[in-house]
Predict the structure.
Amino acid sequence: MNETKDLASWIVGLRWGNIPEAIIDYAKILVVDTLGCMLGGSIQESNKAALRYTRAMGGTPQASIVNYGDRTNVYNAAFMNGSFGHGWDFDDHLMGGSPHSMSATTAAALAVAEWQISSGREFLEAWIAGFEANNRIGAASEPGLMNRGFHHVGTIASFAGAAVASKLLHLDDWKTENAIAITVSQAAGTFQHSQRTGGAIKRNHMGFAASNGVRSALLASEGITGAREALEGKFGFVKCHAGEENKMEALTRDLGKEWYTPRAAMKVFSNCAGQWGVMDLFYALKKKHNLKPEDIEAVTCWLRPTSSWMVGTIKGEDVKDIFGAQFSARFGLGMAMVLGDNRPKAYQHNVPPYGRWKEIVEVAKKIDIIGDPEVEAAGLKKGIFGYSLCEIKLKNGTVIKGESGWPKGFPKNPMTKEERLEKFYSQALIVLPREKAEKIVGCVEKIEEMDDIRPLIGLLVA
């Protein structure tokens, strides 16, 4: 029963020389992807509302807000940049750990590293420590945490912020353990946003995660303590959030040998990853058979039960805004058929009352989403994230069937370097000139050579 203590000691003891080169290289790729998501997400309307709130609250000028350049305290900067990263639901995913934690990890690192004038090496070292620790807590909390309806972002990702901030503040083992324990008292968020259209606050779950983690580390640095055995205890985080459906051993199993960073995926679609597998499959069938909206009679998709309640509850005709659209597989597949596009601009410009939403809804009405335990079992056996089946009945009587493989963006079906950069520039160039965006990529690629992280942060301001 020393898992929290041991994890804290590992965070403190992690050094650049102990991190495999492949982990460092992939972490850089993931940071670039996340910075692009932050830049693009900074213009999202609910994030602009959060920015107005943050400006009204003020704050000691310690760290910068991406794109806008406001300087505020580290807590507020982490909140805003984390929210920006999740602004279009275009940020990372990970199977077997904590989906969606990269924006919280990066936002906390940007804020505290700028304030502490950290080096590039310190920044990435802390980033990896935070991402790894957070994913271990995520792995330990499955499947119970999700089965109970908790949202990984507001709950698990908070520990990424705490670990990152603790490392950049150079806290010792005891204070880092307390930072983790204090985070337990703040981690929160549920998946109710997936059940009804609406839920702009989901974007801010990531901001809360980053800023709560930073606050935990700051409180611990001043001597505030948290409960012992905060993760593994009888009323600790894991058992309270996951019950007996947990994998407690994942907290510390093979620390320093088993890495979660290489498992991370980069999104190619701007929506809930619960529909990622079936959407990949749907696009493949559409292309192979040259399908058009007018060809479709009916579509049936079989997903694992967890995915079906995440993305199968909201019907296409019930979508009222972008938040509901991104959690409706019916609407998303309708977009795939009508627009051939499920990226941020497509969602932004084609939800009621904009764009071609009526055409999308007409296709969405023909789509049925079914949660099937046998599909889940088959996916687990095959080891494929989001494994799905799809059957398309055409008006001419033809029936098309297919099963999904590894979705694009996962390490087993990776994006090419050109595809990754295209995604980054599609977001960064919304607010930055090309020259600045290219310099961001160059800085991250050689981040260990930076004695001061602030020039990189300066490039993130328009």
